[in-house]
Amino acid sequence: MSARKPFVAGNWKMNLERKTALGLALSVRDSVGRRDDIDVAVFPPYVYLDEISRALAGSLVKSGGQNCCDETSGAFTGEISPAMLVDVGATYVLIGHSERRHVYGEGDELVGRKVKLALEHGLSPILCVGETLEQRQAKRTEQVVGEQIARGLAGVDGRALQARVTVAYEPVWAIGTGLNATPAQAGEVHAYLRGVLAGLYNEAAAERARILYGGSVKPDNVRALMAVPGVDGVLVGGASLKPESFLPLLDYR
Ligand code: PEP
Q: Could you tell me the residue ranges of all domains in the chain?
C-alpha cells in the first residue's frame, strides 16, 4: 500500500457568496471531524479566505489560495502575496491552474517563480499541469506535462518536494467539461509524472510525492480514479461547490 495519504481538495474558483462559502466550509469541517486517514483542503476566493480559515482553525480541514503573486510586496495592483495568504491562515496555494495558464496566459517560468516563493513563505504549493486536447491528439501529452513539471519545480530541492509540494495532473480538456480522463489515461500520465520526478530528484522522493488527478471528478467516478495506482487524491472544481457532491468524494473507497 502507498505511504502517501490521500488528499481531496476543493477549488471553488470564482463561485459562492460569503454565506454559502462559510456554510460549505462548515459542512466539510463537520463531515471530516477527527478523520486523519485523508487530507482535505478547500480553496475559497481570496476575499473569503480569512473568515473561512478562522472557521476551520483547529479542525483537520485546511484552506488555501487559488493563486498567488511571484513578488513579495509592492506596486502589483490586484495581486496577493504568499505572505498575505499565510497571514490569513492558508496552508496551501494552487499554482499554475489551467485557468491561470490558459485564460490569463501564465507560463512555466512565472509558475516556477510562484512555487519557489510560496515555499519560501511556508505555503504548500499544489503545482497544476495538464495538456490541451490538441496536444493530446498530437501525442504531445508527456512532453507538455514533463516540461511543465520540470520548469515548475526548477530550484525546488528534494526535501521541499517530499515535504510540501503536491502535483496535480489536470488535463485541460477535462476541466469543467464533464469529460473526465479514464482511469487508464490518468494512470499513464501519473506514472509518467512520477518517472519525471524520479529523474529530477530520485526514486525515494518521487515515491513520496503526491500526485492528484483533477478534471470533472464527481461522486460517480471518484472511486475508479482513486483506485488507480499512483493517483493519490483529487482536485475538484464543480463538484466541490455543494456538500451533496463534495462530501461523498471523501468516502471514495
Ligand atoms: C479544477 O478546477 O481544478 C477542476 C478540476 O474543475 P472541475 O472538477 O470542475 O473539472
A: 7-251
Catalytically annotated residue among 99, 131, 170, 190? 170
Residue nearest to atom 6 of ligand 1 (CA): 237
Q: What is the pLDDT of residues 89-124, one digit of tens each?
A: 999 999 999 999 999 999 999 999 999 999 999 999
pTM value?
0.97
**CA triple 146-108-14, angle to 5 deg:** 110
Q: Partners of 63 in the beta sheet?
A: 42
Q: How much distance in Å is there from the Cα of 174 to the middle of ligand 1?
A: 8
Residue 60's DSSP bridge partners are none
Q: Nearest C-alpha to atom 2 of ligand 1 is from which residue?
A: 237
23, pLDDT greater than 80:
yes
Amino acid of residue 170:
E
Q: Kindly report the CATH class assigned to 7-251.
A: alpha beta
Q: How far is CA 52 from CA 18, 42, 83, 133, 145, in A?
A: 9, 9, 17, 35, 33
Using DSSP's 3-state secondary structure scheme, residue 10 falls into strand
Cell representation of residue 145: 506535462
What residues flank ligand 1, with Cβ below 6 Å? 11, 13, 170, 175-176, 214-217, 235-239
CB 38 within 8 A of CB 8: yes
Q: Whose CA is nearest to atom 7 of ligand 1?
A: 237
Q: Is 121 assigned a catalytic role? A: no
